[in-house]
Write a structure and sequence with these properties.
single chain, about 150 residues, alpha+beta, eight-stranded mixed beta sheet
Length: about 150
């Protein structure tokens, strides 16, 4: 299992470490926050990595992990995103694991979620929701057409 949760805003490092320790027992030293290229080459592999966006990147704060993160939390990407988004008051995008590269699951700051479409250029900019999301009442909803197979 590979986690990639894209947050719209920064998850402050100290608070993230504290939340992960308190909720899931992940040791603070097993959470790396920062740019990948700044990580010392000999450091042990972290359980969680939280990296900042490139300039101008939407939903660019990336929380990543693998099997160790799953074992610590017992949650998949969506479950972990719905647990963390309300704690930090931020929105998150999680891949819906479909064959549609521009369809994602938006997790609102209140933890509610639903399918959204992002722009067609591969950027994580939300165009509209495919279903109502209670925590995003101002997000336009354009249900998929019946023949589309969604």
């Amino acid at each position: 299992m590979l986690y990639q949760i894209h947050f719209e805003e920064e998850l402050p490092a100290q608070r993230l470490r504290q939340v992960l320790r308190d909720r899931y027992g992940i040791r603070p030293q097993d959470v790396y926050c920062g740019r990948i290229e700044d990580r010392p080459p000999g450091d042990p592999r972290p359980v969680v990595m939280c990296t900042p966006p490139r300039d101008g990147e939407n939903f660019g704060w990336l929380l990543a992990g693998d099997r160790d993160l799953f074992e610590a939390t017992g949650q998949d990407e969506w479950e972990l995103a719905t647990a963390l988004a309300p704690v930090f008051g931020v929105r998150a995008l999680v891949d819906d694991h479909s064959s549609h590269p521009d369809r994602w699951i938006l997790v609102a700051a209140d933890g509610s979620s639903g399918l959204v479409l992002t722009d067609e250029e591969g950027e994580l900019r939300i165009r509209y929701a495919l279903e109502p999301i209670s925590g995003e009442p101002n997000l336009a909803v354009v249900p998929p057409v019946q023949w589309s197979g969604w």
